[in-house]
Amino acid sequence: MRSLAVGVVALLAVSAAADDSRLEWLNHALETYAATLEESDRNARLAGFARAERLFASVVGSGAHNAALQANLGNAALQAEHRGRAVLAYRRALELDADFPRALQNLEHVRTLLPSWLPRPQPAGAFDTFLIYRTLPDADRAFAGSVAFALGGLLIALSIRWHQGALRGAGMLALTASALLVGSTWLDGSGDDARGAVITADEVLARSADSALAPLAFSEPLPGGTEVTLVEVRSPWARVRLANGRDAWVNESSVTPIRPGPD
Questions:
Q1: Which residues of the chain, if any, have pLDDT below 70?
Q2: Contact residues for 105 (Cβ-Cβ < 8 A; gap 6+)
Q3: Backbone angles phi, psi at 192, to 5 degrees
Q4: Which of 90, 116, 176, 178 is the most buried (most CB within 10 A)?
Q5: pLDDT digits (tens, 9 = 90+) for 144-195
């Protein structure tokens, strides 16, 4: 897989303060990954990368969190043909460092491997940058919106008192920001539990409702690595939203949030 960006050696510096067991897992993961790169037998490669993935996951599970570690976990998962878990790791790496080059490059690479019919998240453009507030959790958006509303009201009141057009303009801007922040939580249709997620099962049948008897939402299963928004959970079902805005219901166990929520 020549287009896969790798950089396992750089990971050695990230756990200098870790305990001995974490360093042992990390070193074992690095050694296993590096050795498997030299393996020519396909089955042996898959098994080796799967072992490396488990070891990197153990380091993450022990409390180590950084973009390099997540990117290497994603690389091992992808080489082991666990595409969903690879995308999840790359997305978690980008949560920690939005500009981390290996995660960005490898995530784009995995997206090219998915079926052409599957809607994909679009690269961030100027308009997406303007709407960066939509990446905030709903509670944070609501709080920021209330603060902006109070500030806007204060500025407009002061503008009336002192006859200052600049204050009125600033107040209107704050009120507009408040409307965007508060209104976006409703427009997203997401509720408090909505968050980015990834289909981590190899493939999953998507239904039009939360029932095994409901019609299929798509003619083909959603493949592992599909990036979605987790809209709501009605155990054992979860409603997900694809990049084109279409909703579907999948088995709850087949989808994993990028940011794990409270139990």
A1: 1-20, 122-141, 145, 178, 180-194, 261-263
A2: 3, 5
A3: -70, -25
A4: 90
A5: 768 878 887 887 788 887 877 787 788 788 778 767 666 655 555 444 446 8
Rounded CA separation 131/95 (Å):
17
Cβ(25)–Cβ(14) under 8 Å? Answer: no
d(CA 160, CA 66) in angstroms, rounded, equals: 50
Q: How far apart are CA 203 and CA 120, in angstroms?
A: 16
Q: For residue range 208-232, what is the model confidence (pLDDT) as tens digits?
A: 999 999 999 999 999 999 999 999 9
Question: CA 254, 256, 261, 263 torsion: positive or negative?
Answer: positive
Q: pTM above the 0.70 mark?
A: yes
* Residue 207 β-bridge partners: 216, 249
Task: Report helix, strand or coil for 137.
Answer: coil
Report whether 59 contacts 20 (CB < 8 A).
no
> Whole-angstrom Cα distance, residue 11 to residue 15?
8
Task: Tokens for 207, please give them.
Answer: 């239904």
Of all helices (H) and strands (E), which one includes residue 157?
Answer: helix 138-162
Residues in the chain: 263
The single residue listed with the structure tokens 């994909």 is 120
- Are the beta carbons of 183 and 164 closer than 8 angstroms? no
The pair of structure tokens assigned to 211 is: 């029932």
Residues 6+ apart with CB under 8 A from 161: none
The structure tokens listed for 163 are 């006859």
